[in-house]
Amino acid sequence: MTLIEKILANHCKQDVVKPGDIVDVIMDVRAARDFGGANVVKNMQDYGLSLEDPDKTFFTFDCNPTGSDQKYAVNQHICRIYARKNGVKVYDIDNGIGTHTLMHEGLAYSGSTAVTTDSHANILGAVGSFGQGMGDKDIAASWANGKVWFKVPESVKITLTGKRPENLSAKDIVLNLLAHFGANSLLGYSVEFYGDEVDRMSLDERITISSMGTEMGAIILFFTPNDEIMAYSSARAGRTLDLVEADPDATYAEEFTLDISGFVSRVSRPGAPHDTVPIIEEEGTKIDSAFIGSCTNGRFEDLAAAAGVLYNRKVAPGVVLKIVPATDEIWQQCLDEGLIDIFKDAGALLSNAGCAGCAAGQVGQNGPGEITISTGNRNFPGKQGKGEVYLASPEIVAASAVAGFITTPANIPDEPALFEIGSGVKIDITKSDKSKSQSDDLKPTEVEGRVWLISEDNIDTDMIFHNRYLAITDINEMGQYTFDNLKGYENFASQAQPGDIVMVGKNFGSGSSRQQAVDCFKALGVSCIMAESFGAIYERNAINAAFPIMTYQVPDALDIKNGDRVRINFETGLVTNTRTGNQIEAHPFSEVQMDIFQNGGLF
């Protein structure tokens, strides 16, 4: 049997399995990430499922360890609560990438099986472990039953011959393999690597290659562990492990022999990992940013190689270099061995361990028009942001960050390439029509509208317009999120009508300086906000945006009920409840406020 057939047979209690067989595979590890973990919990709860073995069940939080996204934060907490109730171990946000954790913790090793919500779980092939990424229903089934059904795939054997060229990185090797096999010629196969140079590869190098099996369409890229890796896994597992390997007479669907001596440094062009070309074809391409990390190249050897390039050098002006170790253990090793100092001295941004740019919740994302060179495994459109992403080795990424353009360590220039004045994305600014006279554009100084009476003090900007929406720049899109973080008023935006007036208590708009907390009301057509007092920054933001706000001191005298209509005069400050006729005098607009209001804003 081949390696995958051996492992599957060992885990389905059959003597022999063959391609095409469908078997129930016992999973030694059943894990879920912060991405998808909450859905696994939902399946467990919706279908009344219980855990088959909590000791083999894990959560790994790696997509958003910075906690910068509310949805991830909610999902993580759902998982934590479930874990506490059911005795499940959580490798939390201080740990790093889950698949790497499984190897570090001795949970994945030669001959073992693992399933998780990570599509790159087949990275475990680096230690000869059968790892698979699956959807939340599959993971829930594995939690409840301890096993999942699987169709035994055919196997392919790849032998690398020849001498490995000097300075050829593991990333270069896998990009050469992608150039040869493309994205689908190995589709659905289990792949095994052999050869003298393969035997000499370190764990970190094997991880880099195995991590891109998904980009090649393969079920998994397998390496049979050498003595060094078996010793590592045994030490991490705390027991002597047995080596599982393919039989000498194993049958393969296809066998390939490739001469590694002909491999060269390559980059993947934006849009497709398999669109790889020798670096010379893209050398000189100006970049805006660079990223070193991910499950593919966030290992210590990767970061040490980058540090070797960055030592006593600076990142080019205008270029941003972001570095994210794969695990906290690697982060600590970088600290102990002085790599952190090198990165910081070079001007790089260093984040805590995690998936980083490959997941939307951590550093590494780019914006429209931005050119990034990255050590990640995917550069699909939108995967790492809205810009264009090249894939390359840590050495090439580091060298490019210093040069300001795509290049190799050997070709870093004495002076970096600089952005020219006037370069960059052109912003179309439509200027207002100033041909009409000011009197034609005078705004009414009296408004009348339906009242929203919100008798609360200290309504802050996060309650008004939460920070998860701060990336929105189009004012027309902001209104829908108004008050969606204010308890009891989550439906305000859908029920508000143009002309409505909001009446609140003290210190309205405290908190941050975000302009969106004003603009969201403008987007809805709210005609005025009246408060007993405003946060200082909010007050300025509203006045400068020509959005009417007024303060008043005796609101009870109006005898206002929710839904009443009031009339407000900005010049006199007179406020009238049209239902009762009651009136109060609020603070009228100041001269400055009126000037800005009639001007349509500060500008």
Task: Provide a descriptive summary of the structure in words.
It is a single chain. Helix content is 28%, strand content 18%. It has 20 helices and 25 strands. The longest helix has 17 residues, at 70-86. It is elongated. Mean pLDDT is 91; it is low at 425-439.
Total of domains = 3
Radius of gyration (Å): 30 Å
CATH architectural grouping of the largest domain: 2-Layer Sandwich
Overall 3D shape: elongated
CATH topology of the largest domain: Aconitase, domain 3
Mean pLDDT: 91
Structural class: alpha/beta
According to CATH, the homologous superfamily of the largest domain is: Aconitase, domain 3
**What is the straight-line distance between the termini?**
75 Å
Query: Strand arrangement, largest sheet?
Result: 22-21-20-19-23-24-25
Note the main sheet.
Answer: 7 strands, mixed
Unreliable parts = 425-439
State which percent range the strand residues make up.
Answer: 15-25%
Q: State the total count of DSSP E strands.
A: 25
CATH class of the largest domain: Alpha Beta
Helicity, as a percent range: 25-40%
The number of helices is 20
Descriptive keywords:
alpha/beta; 25 strands; Aconitase, domain 3; seven-stranded mixed β-sheet; single chain; 3 domains; 20 helices; Aconitase, domain 4; elongated; 603 residues; five-stranded parallel β-sheet
List the helices and strands and how they pair.
Blueprint: H1 3-10, E1 22-26, E2 29-33, H2 37-46, E3 57-60, H3 70-86, E4 89-91, H4 98-104, E5 113-116, E6 130-133, H5 136-145, E7 147-151, E8 155-161, H6 170-181, E9 190-194, H7 196-199, H8 203-210, E10 220-223, H9 227-237, E11 254-259, E12 266-268, E13 276-278, E14 289-292, H10 294-297, H11 300-310, E15 320-323, H12 328-336, H13 339-346, E16 349-350, E17 371-374, E18 388-391, H14 394-403, E19 446-453, H15 461-464, H16 475-478, H17 492-495, E20 501-503, H18 516-524, E21 528-531, H19 536-544, E22 549-551, E23 565-569, E24 574-577, E25 583-585, H20 591-599
Parallel strand pairs: 2-3, 2-5, 3-4, 5-6, 8-9, 8-11, 9-10, 14-15, 14-17, 15-16, 17-18, 19-20, 20-21, 21-22
Antiparallel strand pairs: 1-7, 12-13, 19-23, 23-24, 24-25
Helix pairs in contact: 2-3, 2-5, 6-8, 11-13, 11-14
